[in-house]
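Protein Record: Sequence and Backbone Structure Tokens
======================================================
Scope: a single protein chain, as residues and as a discrete description of its fold.
Tokens: labelled as protein backbone structure tokens, with as many entries as the chain has residues.
Position: the record begins directly beneath this header, with no further notes in between.
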Amino acid sequence: MTDSPAVTTNTEPATSWRSPLLDVHGAVADQGPDAGVAAHYGDPLREQRLLAEGLAVVDLSHRSVVTVTGPDRLSWLHSMTTQTLTGLAPRVSAESLVLSPKGHIEHDLHMVDDGETTWITVEPGTAGSLVAWLDSMRFMLRVEVADVTADHAVLGEPVRRESAEGEPLSWSDPWPDLAGDTAAYSTVVEHPGRERDWREVIVPRSELQGAVGDRPLAGTWAAEALRVAAWRPRLGFETDHRTIPHEVDWLRTAVHLHKGCYRGQETIARVHNLGRPPRRLVFLDLDGSGHVLPERGAELETGGRVVGRVTSVARHFEDGPIALAVIKRNTPLDAELVASGIAASQTEIVTR
């Protein structure tokens, strides 16, 4: 039992934010980590289709936004996190992780610089701990860190490109392309993540509704279903207090393997060079014959033995019930898996 991953969510209190877009007709509020925005607007499968077709927009205004200013900002962030950031050009996106000294994932930073300020969007409720840690690491450097969540909001768009001059600043998700000198822990040639275009647009909170305009809205359920289908890990979902990036194939977009020293680098190098991660991310096709699906965090069993836990669950508009799970590395690929009495067939993501 000690080897099966425990699912944890963000440790800070849930945001008290309530999006004005919850007043849109048909909006149903989400709960848990995505509280404060809409889970759906009355027809989640239709919303998912519109999102997959590039037509809808998702309210992510519960996400936290942090800024770093000052002439030393990029070299400073480069020295402490997993990605190479020196020389990051304006309006070019990057993803970087903050690791514990033992290499466990603590924060996922969605970063874009405008030439004067580095803008970072993070999971809801995590800005406080991130800002406190960054402030503790400033020393004599010319940097200033601020939590600007109260003044800025995030919208999700099914777009795969950087923002142009005259557009609001956006973080374009690099998933699943390899970002720089890194490695993939999946050997799949046709990665499903390439079918998902995604970026996060940062706008003033006062302009949130105007930024949506006349585009149809899709809820978090739709966005999460497409994320799961793309095998895209999410902090607090596919991660727990001891997750290392290799286990969820997160090196591909967020970890540079040959940059200067940073906290947790020893674990990154040791596992990559000498071994394999103790757990691995898998994709699950769930039996949809019933009306009930396993909850996030449900134990995943084979032959009555717990081998992992379900980390994300969704209903896909084409593929039906799907999920992501983290399981023990040595679990056989043909193992008959069951979660909450529901059969699940495994597709290998991180190579066994």
Observations:
- The radius of gyration is 20 Å.
- Residues 1-14 have pLDDT under 50 and may be disordered.
